Structure formats: C-alpha cells, structure tokens
Amino acid sequence: CNVxxxxxxxxxxxxxxxxxxxxxxxxxxxxxxxxxxxxxxLTRAQDAGIPTAVLDHKAFDGRDxxxxxxxxxxxxxxxxxxxxAGFMRILTPGFVRHYQGRLLNIHPSLLPKYKGLDxxxxxxxxxxxxxxxxxxxxxxxxxxxxxxxxAALAVEPGENIEQLTQRVHAAEHQIYPLAMRWFAEGxxxxxxxxxxxxxxxx
Length: 202
Ligand code: GRF
Hints:
34% of the residues lie in helices and 24% in strands. The protein is of the alpha/beta class. It has a 7-stranded mixed β-sheet, with helices on one face. It has a two-stranded antiparallel ribbon with strand order 8-9.
C-alpha cells in the first residue's frame, strides 16, 4: 500500500506513522509533501529516507491551481492512500473527489463535536467530561467525513489546555498508525453507509 503524507508543521503524527513502519505496519510512505518549506516534518521524513517535496500555496493564484499542482505531485507516487497529518489547507471539492475513499485526516476532537479550529479550548470551555481525536475519511464537508476510529479521554478535573492538548496528541499517535495499517490490510474502507471495518482483530 503506497502512502503519501501531506503536512504543514511539526509532523509528530507523521513520525508515529513512520515509526509504525519499522514495526509491523505494511503501509509504505513513499513521499511527504508540505505546503511550508519550514515544516519540521520534512526533516523527520528526510531522516527516515523518505522523499519530500514542498509546494508553497502562496506561489499559486488560488485554491484550484494549487490543488491541481498538488494532485500532480501526489500522483507521481501512485498512492493507494493519501494521509493528511496536520495539513492546514482546505481542499477543493475536485481534490477531495479525486481521492475519494483513499483520503484520511486526523482531527483533534470527538467528531462530530468541534469541527474546525481551537477544539481543546472549546471542549474545556463546554465543561466536557470527555474529549479526544478522530481519524476520518475526507469528504467535501470540512471535518465531516465518516469516522474510522476515535480515541476518547476523560478530561481530568482542573486539567489545563496544554495538558489536554498534549494527551490528545499522544492519543493521535496511537490511532493514526492503526488506521493506516487497517487500510493497508484492506480491512478499513469507505462504504456507501460510511467507514467500514472488516474483520478487525486488535
Ligand atoms: C494535530 O493536532 C492534528 O489533529 C491536526 O493537526 C495537528 C498536527 O500535529 N490535524 P503534528 O504536526 O502531527 O504534530
């Protein structure tokens, strides 16, 4: 299963995916693409011997031309799966359709709660007793595609935003490699009713 990972920043999720390859994950990350030249995730990829590319969205005159160029770079690697790992760009419907059923994202909330930004602050302000993260297939609705796996954490009394953010981030690093593995093994797919898991033994 050929995987291309898109990033914009630190790439700690990318690192978790890379590390899982050294264990029993059959997925193979063939390239890492960033829209920012200073993304630390590029260094992580290079350290792991994975080819990288930078495509600066500011060099394009709009989302359509950026996404068209991005698709070209991605498709050079013939991916079975494209993984968004902290890729901070909204993708066009054309892009999303092109990768339908093979495009995953991770979002730091228990979807459908808290789509969009600032999820940890919103969960704390709402006094939620539970918070977490979700891996989902990407559809045209922002953070609205079918969920494949979630990790839920109990919010601890008096916990501050840094602590909660850090714990959710650690949970992301657990579930994203799992979703990548399930997809590579043909057990996770996007069906008409939503995300489906076939025959999963943990
Ligand atoms: C994560 O919080 C993820 O949920 C969100 O972007 C962040 C990426 O973090 N989509 P990192 O670059 O993987 O450390």
